[in-house]
Design a protein that fits this description.
By secondary structure, the chain is α+β, with helices and mostly antiparallel strands. The chain folds into 2 domains: about 250 residues, 2-Layer Sandwich (BirA Bifunctional Protein, domain 2); about 90 residues, Anticodon-binding domain (Rossmann fold, 3-Layer(aba) Sandwich), CATH 3.40.50. The protein has 14 helices and 16 strands. It has an 8-stranded mixed β-sheet with strand order 1-5-6-11-10-9-7-8, with helices on both faces. Helix 1 packs antiparallel against helix 5 and helix 1 packs across helix 10. The protein is elongated, with a radius of gyration of 28 Å. Bound molecules: zinc ion (ZN) (2 copies). One zinc ion binds next to helix 7.
Length: about 425
């Protein structure tokens, strides 16, 4: 291949097992979300840059540094979506769904794009599963989203999940808290904070709370807690959400340092963390964003949602589920004169749902066995001259090496019988 066509840094090709795990996650998501009446929304990957500037915020790292942005021939600035919510809200408003009183529930699955530094294994095209619910500020929606997320993650094979929650209050009550937090942060030894937090403590003090640096964590250990500043309405909303989660038998932990960096987040925020891949890592996160639609020129619509990164999810699901992309058979036919018969057998198996392939070119028996091994098939089916004369077929177990010969007429049943046996 011409080396100038090499795959771009931070972009991945997906094959075999990884593709199979992704497909499994997508199918599981579609099944679970459909039960909750979430409809699939396939929004475009490319949108006007202004949409993201307005919804995510012009002075955020995502918008300032991380988007793939370019001009089209008419000089209009376009961007590849760095996250899903903006496009979903745009589609919702554009379809006039905000005009009816019904609640709109959406999920979407697909790639997102950010110009992350590709070292550290960060991908510039990564994949997310997103859910958004628009049109209701009820705590039942918060609980519904969280229950649905946990159910999806469990069905995807994830174990040892921990649900963490916090409430960020509303426009009414958060101002007072931010003042107190700023006061607290400025009373600390500024030099002890990490560089990011020194800037954040003025520009975005909430973000100091979720800094991962040990020093910063110690410094904020006795910071004021946002829940103590929640107004009555926010307090009731959060209490109801927790009550519903308990009713559903979900375990959770209130994490006072769980925040989201952007101004429009309000009330419930949540994360599901797993400690299966090293340190505790978030596999999904979300929360409420009432009124975000106003930033896109819509009305004051309440909303809530979550996002899960599929790459991380796939690592965990792969560990726990033995999803195998392994084919069941490879039919080895050394001679040209038996090739049509071999093809007919292969086709018959495929049509009855048994996965496999065959050689279409005559070759030595030895070479064909090597091909069967490289193919990864569970069984090699052999249709040589001997088998052809006796109307039989040989089945070789590629793992154990033992071989049996059966009448070709019973092949399908025999294979099904062999497959039903548990592989050791
Ligand atoms: Zn409030
Ligand atoms: Zn810090």
């Amino acid at each position: 291949m011409d080396p100038s066509f090499k795959r771009l840094k931070g972009f991945a090709d997906m094959f075999g097992e990884q593709s199979a795990v992704f497909a499994f996650l997508e199918t599981t998501a579609r099944t679970v979300f459909a039960n909750y009446e979430y409809e699939e929304l396939r929004a475009p990957i490319l949108e006007p840059t202004e949409l993201f500037r307005r919804s995510i915020g012009a002075v955020t790292d995502v918008v300032q540094k991380e988007m793939f942005t370019f001009e089209d021939v008419k000089g209009r600035s376009l961007s590849m979506r760095p996250e899903a919510t903006a496009g979903v809200l745009r589609a919702y408003l554009e379809a006039g769904r905000d005009k009816d009183s019904a609640i709109s529930r959406f999920f979407s699955i697909g790639p997102m794009f950010r110009r992350e530094r590709p070292q550290k294994g960060r991908l510039r095209q990564f994949h997310q599963i997103n859910c958004e619910c628009l049109g209701s500020d009820s705590p039942y929606i918060d609980a519904e989203l969280i229950c649905m997320l946990v159910e999806f993650l469990k069905r995807a094979g994830l174990k040892n999940l921990q649900l963490q929650l916090n409430s960020l209050g509303c426009r009414e009550c958060r101002g007072k808290y931010l003042e107190e937090l700023k006061k607290f942060l400025s009373s600390r030894d500024q030099d002890a904070f990490c560089e990011d937090c020194r800037t954040r403590s003025v520009s975005n003090p909430l973000r100091v709370l979720d800094c991962k640096q040990v020093n910063c964590r110690e410094l904020i250990a006795d910071a004021p807690r946002i829940l103590d500043y929640n107004c009555r309405a926010c307090e009731t909303h959060f209490a109801k959400t927790l009550e519903l989660l308990k009713l559903e038998g979900l375990n959770f932990r209130v994490n006072h340092n769980l925040v989201r960096g952007l101004d429009y987040y309000c009330r419930t925020t949540f994360e599901v963390v797993s400690d299966e891949i090293g340190a505790q890592t978030a596999v999904a996160g979300g929360g409420r964003y009432d009124g975000l639609t106003r930033q896109l020129g819509g009305g004051d619509i309440p909303g809530a949602g979550f996002a899960c990164g599929m790459e991380r999810l796939a690592l965990l699901a792969e560990k726990n589920l033995k999803i195998s992309a392994r084919p069941i058979f490879y039919l080895a036919c050394p001679d040209e004169e038996n090739m049509n018969r071999a093809f007919a057998i292969t086709q018959e198996l495929r049509k009855s749902g048994v996965t496999g392939a065959m050689n279409y070119k005559p070759a030595s028996f030895k070479k064909l066995m090597r091909e069967a091994a490289r193919n990864g098939a569970r069984y090699a089916l052999i249709l040589g001259a001997d088998e052809a004369t006796s109307a039989s077929i040989s089945i070789k177990d590629m793992d154990k090496g033992d071989q049996i010969s059966i009448s070709a007429r019973n092949l399908k049943e025999k294979l099904i019988e062999l497959l039903a046996k548990k592989p050791e």
